[in-house]
What does this fold into?
Amino acid sequence: MAIGKITERIDAITEISPHQNIAAPPCPRSVKIELTARCNFNCSFCATGYKLRDKRDMDWGFYLRLLKELKEEGVEEVGMFYLGESFILPWLPDAIKAAKDVGLEYVFLTTNGSLATPDKVEACMKAGLDSLKFSLNYADETQFCSIAQVKGGLFHTMVDNIKAARRVRDEGGYDCGLYGSYIDYDGEQGERMAAMVAELEPCLDEVYALPLYSQADLVSVDEKDRGWEIRGGNPGRAGNMRPPVPCWSLFTEARVSFDGHLSACCFDHDGRFRMGDLNDISFMEAWQSPDFQALRQAHLDKDVSCTVCKDCVSYT
It folds into this structure.
């Protein structure tokens, strides 16, 4: 197996290249698809628990049409998630296989790990999953209960599932990268995470840190109350931060919600960043829509004060 570093892929996506640095950039290389908006955690750093929109699953017929269109337009990478927890779905392996069957080169997935049981993980690897990343956002059970706001036993389930995923990969000889990331809430989380990382690093190909996002200013009050350090926009990973303006997520990677809307934001929990309904128009029509071009131009001009991005960027 030739497992590459996930940080190299992340950095390639979060860098706006010269040919993308325009209001109507070409088709993005990467697209995240929200197979489901449902999640079994209620993390305090995430606005999912605010229930600002419906929480349903993507229509299978729409999903298949979308995959074909993305491949025809030149998309190379697809993520089987957006704001929900995809391991909730019994048909997740089928979704992965469909993406690979269409010819998409790289299929990746991020999970909270609690539902990623060995049988489910093996089914996904058999289907062709190229990358599985676990969100290791809790140093121990106490922090897990405080942040994820679910039963503490799920913390140990998550840890067991991560270890089992490595056994599944090794025994099956699957060509799937296994990764972990954690949020550096306040500058001290890395120290708190040391024991957890040391325990799980032998099971993972790479572990890296992320900054704490304001998530379009939807959860900043809760974060401030905890004394956490908030970052505006999506600056990427902590080891290679990108500027909040222009925000790379408008130019280099697309996100499609479970109900078929193309979103300009990595954290569109309430629908205000919708740039087009893919039930009615094509992916590229939405990607280069007048509204999207206007938002990108504001970012290129480095003045988003009159856009939907204004509150998020104010935390930089």
Remarks:
- The chain has a mean pLDDT of 94.
- The chain has twelve helices and nine strands.
